[in-house]
Write a structure and sequence with these properties.
mainly alpha, two-stranded antiparallel sheet, about 70% helix, globular
């Protein structure tokens, strides 16, 4: 039995589940359970000790979920396809990402501020309207890589164990991969592995966006993509696609006109088209495999 072979039928069923119901309840969502493991390892009073505990946490989480994925691949027949689909769905979020960003499309600035704060890590309390719109669109583009391209890429490459491994690493980075006194060393193993695993998905996502408007998108990719190791590749392509500026104050600013509320609708439409491209691209590879 090949534990690392993707199943096109399981993939399509997982897509259907995601589009129909969105996210699983927290009580049964594997991502929530991945996060629960962190608290058992967050120890150490020195950078070296924190790094070792962080590495142990990451290795333990990866081993658990990689093994769970391999075991699920052993279930035979139609039942195996359904089990694989149900677990695979938990590794990506198409509908959930759309709905989170859609909530930012409101004339009520305080409601927009609350909604944007749910999808970005920066402080939104003092951002003006256009910076809120920018933050929402930045999150939409970057999370297209993290929440869609990444897990599907690793499912195509390594089957369900690969998709779960990616989701573990990306989740750990989102939880502890910060330059803060609490997480600087504890979160470093997760942050560095996440950088490595996202190297290809981030650039693939940028290319998928750029297909919709190649000239300007590729110019933005070449000019602004290298600002960050991964995140600014899909963001720069998306900014070029929309023809707007993205700015995280004090970190980066892309050229273009100031984004307005209508650009969230435009961005979501381009997102939907891009997701269709992503699904078609990887489904074709799975069929060939």
């Amino acid at each position: 039995m090949n534990f690392f072979m993707p199943n096109p039928y399981a993939f399509l069923i997982a897509i259907g589940i995601d589009l129909l119901i969105g996210e699983y309840p927290n009580s049964i969502h594997p991502v929530v359970w991945m996060g629960k493991i962190v608290k058992y390892f967050e120890k150490g009073s020195t950078p070296k000790a924190q790094f070792i505990y962080g590495l142990s946490m990451l290795a333990t989480n990866c081993a658990i979920w990689f093994t769970a994925g391999a075991l699920a691949m052993m279930v035979p027949g139609i039942a195996g396809i359904l089990v694989q689909a149900l677990i695979l769905k938990a590794t990506f979020s198409i509908r959930g990402l759309y709905e989170h960003v859609k909530k930012c499309d409101t004339d009520d600035e305080e409601e927009m501020r609350r909604s944007v704060s749910m999808i970005v890590s920066r402080d939104t309390s003092k951002l003006d309207r256009w910076h809120l719109v920018s933050a929402a669109l930045e999150s939409l583009s970057e999370n297209t890589s993290d929440s869609i391209t990444g897990p599907i890429f690793y499912y195509t490459l390594l089957g369900l164990p690969g998709a779960l491994l990616y989701r573990v690493v990306n989740t750990m980075d989102a939880m502890v991969g910060y330059h803060t006194p609490r997480f600087e060393w504890f979160g470093k193993p997760a942050a560095r592995l996440d950088d490595a695993m996202n190297f290809i998905p981030s650039r693939l996502t940028a290319t998928f966006f750029a297909i919709l408007r190649p000239g300007r998108s590729f110019r933005y990719i070449f000019e602004y993509g290298p600002i960050k190791i991964n995140g600014t590749y899909p963001m720069s392509a998306f900014a070029g696609l929309l023809g707007v500026t993205f700015e995280k104050i004090g970190v980066y600013r892309f050229d273009g006109r100031i984004p307005v509320l209508e650009d969230i609708k435009r961005g979501l439409n381009f997102y939907a088209l891009t997701v269709l491209i992503i699904i078609s691209f990887f489904l074709a590879i799975m069929v060939v495999r």
